[in-house]
Amino acid sequence: MGADLDQSALLFELEEVAEREVNRHLAMAKDWHPHDYVPWSDGKNFAALGGVDWDPEQSKLSDVAKAALVTNLLTEDNLPSYHNRIAGDLSPDGAWGTWVGRWTAEEARHSTVMRDYLVVTRGVDPVALECDRMTHMTHGFQPLARFPHGTGAAFLHTVAYVSFQELATRISHRNTGAICGDPIAEAIMQRLALDENLHMVFYRNICGAALDADPDQAMEAIANVVTNFQMPGSNMPNFRRHGVLMAKHGVYDLRQHLEEVLLPVIRTWRVFERADFTARGEAARDRLAAYLEDLRTVQVPRFEEHRDRALARDKARGIDRALAPQAV
């Protein structure tokens, strides 16, 4: 097995794969327009233009729906930071540049439609939402900060991370739509989930090809990403409180993370069936296997035990109203 490929060598080696995946994506992606999904007739002016400012009683969303929509929106808001990382670890040229531009343009629609929906329907406090956006975008993108940037290892960590993250976001969007109790919100979130799935397939296939091109280095990146995984919104205001509420009510929890995100992608890459690793790659694969087993046998059961006890306490106290439309 030769030396690790650097960034330029990996980009060159995978150029044909990138071109094929860009063409596949463009053939499958369907154009849509954010304004078509927003109930504009529900809107009215705020006090600055002679109307009435937001009041909690105006919201028709449950506590869980509010937490999930705000979390998903603030995650999408940080697109400039994601673009900066991905553009730096891919290339502005050829199929890579085409993908970075197209992916960024498609992702930009997500925050547009979600914010328009929430403001027009007065689903959440628009002032608090804007303050949280300012804070979150000022902090930028943190989950990949611990990994290298602008090298072959950085490219591999980035494509491995987004392979899992795009699928996780798809699931979070889909489940958020389902708990909103509003067919318009559900249609919006289903539309976003379709985009995220196509984005995941691009990155998953690129990372799979990278495993063939540089097995040991790619396997180390995958193991590093999985064992240190954080969602891109992990440093946003109220992320922990909102994340607990979302996990408690099945929007995105640890079992979903394991069974609907990590395992399907890893199976697609046939990580545990490969025979092209040296001892170095096998050590990374063993580390990944141990982590997945700990998730399955320890972390997931522990989370579900705590969740079930918390839900039972809420029910006994008659305060399990998180899924009912109400003011925060």
UniProtKB/TrEMBL annotation:
Question: Which parts pass through the membrane?
Answer: none
Give the required cofactors.
Fe cation; Fe(2+)
Annotated positions binding Fe cation 1: 76, 107, 110, 196
What are its GO biological-process terms?
fatty acid biosynthetic process
Gene Ontology cellular component annotations, sorted alphabetically: cytosol
Superkingdom of source: Bacteria
Keyword DNA-binding (UniProt): no
Q: Does the keyword Amino-acid biosynthesis apply?
A: no
Q: Which GO terms describe its molecular function?
A: metal ion binding; stearoyl-[ACP] desaturase activity
Q: Which UniProt keywords apply?
A: Fatty acid biosynthesis, Fatty acid metabolism, Iron, Lipid biosynthesis, Lipid metabolism, Metal-binding, Oxidoreductase
Family statement drawn from the similarity comment of this UniProt entry: Belongs to the fatty acid desaturase type 2 family.
What name is this protein filed under? Fatty acid desaturase type 2
- What organism, scientifically named, is this protein from? Segniliparus rotundus (strain ATCC BAA-972 / CDC 1076 / CIP 108378 / DSM 44985 / JCM 13578)
